[in-house]
Amino acid sequence: MEGYLEEALACLDDRDAGVVAICGMAGVGKSTLLRGINNVFVQDPDRRHEFDYVIWLDEPSDCAIDKLQDTLAHQLGLCAFPDGGVPDHRARPIFEVLRNASFLLLLDGLTKPVDLVDIGVPHLVHDDSRKQKVAMTTRTRGVSGRMSSSRRIDMQCFDSDHSWSLFRAVARDEKINADPRILDLAKEVAGRCGGLPLALTAISSAMRCRKQPEEWVSTESYDDLRHPVLQECFLTTSMWPEDHAIDKDELVDCWIGLGLVGESLPMDEAMRTGLAVVNELEEANLQQPGDAACEVKLHGVMRATALWIARDLGKAPNRWVVHTGGVSLRSRQKLAEFFERARDAERHSAALRDIPGGFLLGLPALTYLDASFTGVREVPPEIGTLASLRYLNLSSTPLESVPPELGKLRQLRHLLLRHTARLSAIPAGVLRGLPSLDVLDVCPSRYTDLCGAGGGASLDEVRSSSAFVRSLGIAVATLTGLRTLCGLDNVRTRRLLVTPVAATAPSVALRPSVLSLLEALHELTVAKCSGLQELEVAGEEDNTWWRLPELRKLEIDELRELRTVRWTRTDVGAFLPALRWVKISHCNRLRSVSWVVQLPCLEQLELSHCTEMVHVVDVDDEEEEQLHTFRCLRRLLLVALPLMSSISGGAAMSFPRLETLEIAGCGSLGGLHGFV
Prior knowledge:
With 676 residues, the chain is α/β, with parallel strands linked by helices. The chain folds into four domains: 2-154, Rossmann fold (3-Layer(aba) Sandwich); 160-219, no CATH class; 228-313, Arc Repressor Mutant, subunit A; 323-498, Alpha-Beta Horseshoe (Leucine-rich repeat, LRR (right-handed beta-alpha superhelix)). The protein has 22 helices and 26 strands. A 13-stranded mixed β-sheet has the order 9-10-11-12-13-14-15-17-19-21-22-24-26. Helix 3 (65-75) runs parallel beside helix 4 (87-98). It is globular. The two termini are 39 Å apart.
C-alpha cells in the first residue's frame, strides 16, 4: 500500500495531472488508499496546508447530481439548498467558493462518470497560486477514461509474499508460530484469500483468537458462526447493495419477518435479540460499522461471498434466492425470470412499477416479499393467493391502494407500508382478515388515525381483530384518534406521528391519561402543528411513575410557532430514560432546548433550520456556574441556525464522548466557548 500511496502523491504533485483515477476490483484497497491520501493532506504537518479544502464525497448509488451538490455544499459550509432547485443554480455558489481556492476533491466508489462542471467544480488549475486536484476510485477503467483522468493507478491483488505478511500482521505472529500445525494451516488459509487485502484482513481477524489447530480447519468466518440462524441472518444482508448503509432496525425487522429471530418474543425483546445478532456478525468481521452508530455495511467481497453461498452452496434449492435488481424475494429460482429486467438496478429499483398478477399465481409457497423503494403503484388482487406469505413490505413506494384480497392472507405477520405518501386507505375488512398480524406500519402516509373514512379500515377493526399487534406504526391527526389508539389493549404502538393534532390550539398538554398505554413507543414525531406555541409534558400527582421507557427517537418538525417545550411535575431523565436521538427542525420561534442536557442516554442531537434559536442550553434556564455534561452524546449537528451565538450561552459544557461535530449555516456562532 505504501508504494501505491507514494505513486498517488507523486501524481497529485504533477502540474499536468488534474484527475487521478484509482482502479481495481472490489476489496483490493482503493478506498483505503484514498483514505491514506486524505490523511496525508489533513494530518501530516508538512502537507496539511497545501489545500484550502480537502473534500471527501461518497458517490450516491444513483449518481444524483443534487445529492453530490448537497454533500459538497455541506462540507464547504454553505447553506443548504432548497429541495428541487435547478442544478445549474445550485452549482453556482459551489463554483464561487472553489474557483480561486486550492482544493482536493476525493470521490470514492464511482460506478459511472460524473460531470464535475455540473456539480460546480471549476476547470482544474495547478499554478503558483492554486492547486486544484481530483482523486477518484472506480472498479472500471471505462469510468476513468470518461472522467478524463490524466493519471491512472491500477491496483492489483497482493502477491504471495505480501499476502502472507499482511495475514501474519493481523492474525499475530506469536499465535501462528506457537504451533507448527497452525503455521501450515495459516499459510493455506492466506493462500485461499487470493491476494485480496480485504479478504486477508477479514479472515485473519476472525482467526486471530483461535489457539488450537482444529479451530483453523474451519477457515471461513461464515462457517464459524455457531448457529444456523446466524448463518441465515448473514445471508440476508446480501439483499442490500454493497457498501450500502443498512439501518440496524431495518435489518432486524427483516429477520423478524422471516422468522429467524424473536418469533415468539415481545417486540422489544425480539429487537434486542436481533441487535445482539448484528453485534455478533460485526465481531466475526462479516459486517462493518456504518457511518452512523445505528448502521452497518456489507463490503462487496462479503456480499459476493453471501451471494455465492446463497445461490450455489445450499443443499435445499428453495432456501434462498437473492436478486441484485428490483426486489428481494424468498422463493424458487424461477423468480429470476421476472426480475432479470431490473438486473442493472440496485436492490430497491424505482424501475419496477408493477407486479403482474399472473406471476404471483405461480408462487403459492412464497413467504417473503419485499418491494420497498420501488415504483410499484398498486398490488394485484392475485396477492390473495399467496396463502403462505408472512412478510410484505411496500414501504417508500408511490402505492395508491391495496386490494381487498389482501385480507385473505391469514399467515401474514408483517405488513409494512411506511412512507407511502399516496396511500389514502386500506379497504374495510382487510385488517380483520389478518389474524396472524404481528407488525403493522402505515406511518407516515395519508392514512391517518385509521378512522375508517371513505370505507377504509379503522382502529375499531384492529380492536375487534383476533390478532395481537406487537408493533404498530401510525399517524394521528386528532386527539380523539390519539385517545382511541391509547385504548387498544391488543396493540403496542411502536412508531407514532402526531400531525397536525390541535393545529390551531396554542398549547397542548400530554398527560398520563392520554398516553398511559404507549409504554412500547420507540419513535415519536410531532410535525406540522402550525398554531402550536407550547408543548407541555405534564405529570399528575397520582401518576408520578409515568414514563416512556422504550422511546429511542424523538423528532419535532415544522412547529413554526413553537416557543417552548415545558416539563411540569416531570423529571426529563426519568420520563425518557432510553432516548438516544433528538431531531428538531423548522421550529422558527424556539430559542433553546435546554432540557436535552437532562437526557441520560442521548447520543445524537440534530438542530436545523430554527431561525430564532440562540443557544442549545440557555443560561436563563439553567444555573450559569453549573457544569452541563452530555454524558453519552456522540454526534452534534447544527445547521442553518443563523442567530445561534453560542452553544452554551456562557455555561460550561462537557462532551466526554463526542465524536462528530457538524456546523453549517450558523453565521453568528463566534466560537465553541464553554467546551470543557
